[in-house]
Design goal:
The protein contains 3 helices and 3 strands. By secondary structure, it is an alpha+beta fold. It has a 3-stranded antiparallel beta sheet. It is elongated.
Length: 86
């Protein structure tokens, strides 16, 4: 039995995950909130750190993860706390 990874589907799921974070960030920013947590999907080939870096790059660092939390990601049950720069 041969197992293959569909790279296009994986990249699409990763992009959808990134978009979910951005939509949530916009919703919270419009409500005047500075922080929000995001429960990430697992099994899409994207580590928590990779997702954080994608979000920071896509939003020009206006949405970011506090550096002190990066080392504790595994203890948060795949939930990432993001900060919205005001």
């Amino acid at each position: 039995m041969e197992i293959r990874i569909n790279k296009e589907a994986q990249e699409r799921k990763q992009r959808e995950e990134l978009n979910r974070v951005i939509v949530k960030a916009k919703t919270y920013a419009n409500a005047g909130m500075e922080f929000f947590d995001f429960k990430r999907q697992i099994g899409i080939g994207l580590s928590p750190l990779e997702l954080i870096e994608m979000v920071e790059a896509e939003t020009n660092n206006t949405v970011y993860c506090e550096a002190c939390l990066r080392s504790f990601l595994k203890t948060f049950d795949d939930t990432i706390m993001f900060t919205i720069r005001q």
